[in-house]
């Protein structure tokens, strides 16, 4: 009998121990208890196509005033090009000038009748900036060029001599109508003085 009682007590004790073991659960892991390696891990890279980090500065977008000014300048340029006559065969800025405290650039313009190899007309102008815009202050035609019996195949500016930086010297290559070898002509211009044009001396 005593052996049976002891066996029954042992069974009860074992059953109680098993139930107590089942009620014990592992404590929840808190953020403070994470491993140092996990805490030190760098953030994952941003995948392509995702939105940029709002904390980083973004490129400044053009202001409405800047965009409007650019559009206005572009419209002005396109209008000037559209209004340029087809008989204008050449336009160049060929050098600076300065006189009486004013300054600007020399500009040359050559016209050419369409389909013609002669009859070109040549002009030189003084252009000055006024109120932020270029303005033509003088325009002179070299009338002798229209009378030359030949075709202008090119012209170039020569560097001015020291102390004469405002003067303009141009050399023209002209092929006579009855020849194949070009001849050189020279145009010399000084502000406020008559120009000189003729065959080059050297």
Textual characterization of the structure:
The chain has 202 residues and is an alpha+beta fold. 26% of the residues lie in helices and 35% in strands. The strands form 2 sheets. It has a 4-stranded antiparallel beta sheet with strand order 1-2-3-4. A 4-stranded antiparallel beta sheet has the order 5-6-7-8, with no helix packed on it. Strand 1 (88-99) and strand 2 (102-111) form a beta hairpin. The longest helix has 22 residues, at 2-23. It is extended and about 75 Å long. 11% of the residues are buried.
Q: What would you report as the Rg, rounded to the nearest angstrom? A: 45 Å
Strand coverage percent: 25-35%
Percent helix among the residues? 25-40%
- Number of discrete helical segments: 4
The major β-sheet equals:
4 strands, antiparallel
Spatial gap, N to C terminus: 148 Å
Secondary-structure element string:
HHHEEEEHEEEE
Biggest sheet strand line-up: 1-2-3-4
* Overall strand count: 8
The coarse overall form would be extended
What is the average of the pLDDT values?
Answer: 76
What are the segments in which pLDDT stays under 50 over at least 5 consecutive residues? 1-39
- Which class best fits the helix and strand makeup? alpha+beta
Write the layout of secondary structure elements.
Elements lengths: L1 H22 L12 H5 L23 H20 L4 E12 L2 E10 L9 E10 L2 E9 L1 H5 L2 E9 L9 E9 L6 E7 L6 E4 L3
Antiparallel strand pairs: 1-2, 2-3, 3-4, 5-6, 6-7, 7-8
């Amino acid at each position: 009998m005593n052996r049976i009682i002891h066996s029954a007590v042992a069974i009860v004790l074992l059953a109680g121990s098993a139930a107590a073991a089942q009620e014990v659960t592992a404590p929840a892991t808190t953020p403070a208890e994470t491993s140092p390696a996990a805490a030190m891990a760098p953030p994952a890279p941003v995948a392509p196509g995702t939105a940029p980090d709002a904390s980083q500065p973004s490129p400044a977008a053009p202001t409405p005033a800047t965009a409007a000014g650019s559009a206005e300048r572009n419209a002005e340029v396109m209008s000037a090009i559209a209004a340029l006559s087809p008989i204008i065969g050449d336009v160049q800025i060929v050098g600076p000038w300065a006189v009486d405290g004013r300054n600007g650039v020399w500009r040359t313009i050559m016209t050419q009748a369409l389909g013609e190899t002669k009859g070109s007309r040549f002009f030189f102008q003084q252009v000055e900036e006024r109120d932020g815009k270029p303005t033509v202050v003088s325009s002179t035609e070299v009338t002798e060029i229209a009378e030359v019996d030949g075709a202008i195949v090119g012209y170039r500016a020569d560097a001015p001599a020291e102390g004469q930086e405002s003067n303009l010297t141009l050399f023209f290559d002209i092929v006579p109508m009855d020849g194949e070898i070009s001849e050189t002509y020279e145009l010399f211009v000084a502000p406020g003085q008559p120009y000189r044009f003729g065959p080059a001396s050297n």
